[in-house]
Amino acid sequence: MLILGIDTSCDDTGAAVVEDGHQVRSNIVASQYEAHERFGGVVPVIAAREHTANISFIIESALETARISFADLDAVAVSHHQGLMLSLVVGVSAAKSIALACDIPLIGIHHLEGHIYSNLMGRSDELHFPFLCLTVAGGHTLLLKVVSHGTYELLGHTRDDAAGEVLDKVARHLNLGYPGGAAIEKLAKDGNPHAYSFPRPLMNRPDGEFSFSGLKTAVTAAIDRDPDLNQADLCASFQQAVIDLLVSKTMRIAQKHQLRQITLAGGVALNTPLRKALQHAAQEHEYQIFTPPRDLCMDNGAMVAGAAYSLYQERGPDPLSIAALANAPLGKTGIRYRHESKYK
Ligand code: ZN
Q1: 331 C-alpha vs ligand 1 centroid, how far in Å?
Q2: Ligand 1 centroid to 2 CA: how many Å?
Q3: CATH value at residue 146
Q4: How far is the CA of 23 from the centre of ligand 1 (A)?
Q5: Closest Cα partner for 208 from 165, 257, 167?
Q6: Which of 181, 215, 185 is CA-nearest to residue 198?
Q7: Which helix (H) or strand (E) covers residue 5, if one does?
Q8: Which member of 80, 88, 99, 227 has the lowest number of beta carbons within 10 Å of its beta carbon?
């Protein structure tokens, strides 16, 4: 089954062709970093304008790279839930047009399900339900028990900022540009992670609740206090605090709920020290860590098509009347969680 997956939920225009939910035949992403960089973050109206300019070309490129035409598609899938409203609408309109013109099923998915399924694609032999998923990105930080296809249990989330959000905000405070996570990771390589002792809020609490805003305040205050500070040391110490918070909570929740397989998803999953720290902690307890291929970590159409393949078997196609929704509950049980306020 050949599915065209489309994602325009935030600032990346993604289209991909995936066969039978796991074989990625193409995965094309147009990044908008340059358009947003001088603003230090995503500007919704600019994101929508860029999606509109790029979407047709990106879809055609995805088909061309997969060496297929519209007539070969069996279904079209799109992230219609969660993201920037104006951005989502561009992808949803394109997907509806294709479904109508080609007379193929339309499958709408929640953007987060794309991230969750980025770990399952091609790994259904080794990764089994239920498993724990830490999804960590600019818009959300969540610990989910993935019970079965489309069914999730919320085991933890952030009460304030998302992890990726604080990485971006601290990077902006240091004038490192956008996106911030990669810039901080690069500087942190040459720094001492013990140079600053930043707080790790809620780290020792037994539940899965995260908090990053106190850490962000402490780091930005340190920057304001000393204009000549060693940026490498500061970034290394800050990054270590974020990693400590994510890893300790994840391992605690995994143990508490006896989930021996742990997946990492979302843009912050690209952070190599985080991947290593989680791997190290898991090995100690003989738990298994799964991370997606790097090109499936950031927003992309392949994860949308991958998720859609499994969810389509469960619940069939969606009507052409599906609508974009900036804030949508997740999965069959309608989980609600905190995410960044930019999603309006
Ligand atoms: Zn995302």
Answers
A1: 16
A2: 23
A3: 3.30.420.40
A4: 21
A5: 257
A6: 215
A7: strand 2-7
A8: 227
Q: How confident is the model at residue 303 (pLDDT cuts 50, 70, 90)?
A: very high
Q: 150 and 226 share a domain? A: yes
Distance in Å, CA 111 to ligand 1 centroid: 6
How close is the Cα of 33 to the center of ligand 1, in Å?
Answer: 15
Same domain for 275 and 131: yes
Q: Which of 94, 98, 105 is nearest to 68 (CA)?
A: 98
Strands (E), 258-340: 261-265, 288-290
The domain of 307 spans 2-116+296-343
Residue 321 lies in a domain: yes
pLDDT at 343: 46
Q: Which residues surround ligand 1, an ion (CB under 5 A)?
A: 137, 299
Q: How far apart, in whole angstroms, are the C-alpha atoms of residue 178 and residue 163? A: 15
Whole-model pTM: value is 0.93
How many angstroms does the Cα of residue 5 sit away from the middle of ligand 1?
A: 14
Which of 288, 246, 252 lies closest to 271 in space, CA to CA? 246
Give the model's confidence band at 344: pLDDT under 50 very low, under 70 low, under 90 confident, else very high. Answer: very low
Total domains present in the chain: 2
Region of poorest pLDDT, from 144-153, 251-260, 335-344:
335-344
The least confident of 35-49, 124-138, 152-166 is 35-49
Q: Are 155 and 261 in a shared domain? A: yes
CA of 224 to the centre of ligand 1 (A): 31
CA of 112 to the centre of ligand 1 (A): 6
Same domain, 145 and 282: yes
Question: Residue 184 C-alpha to ligand 1 middle, in angstroms?
Answer: 19
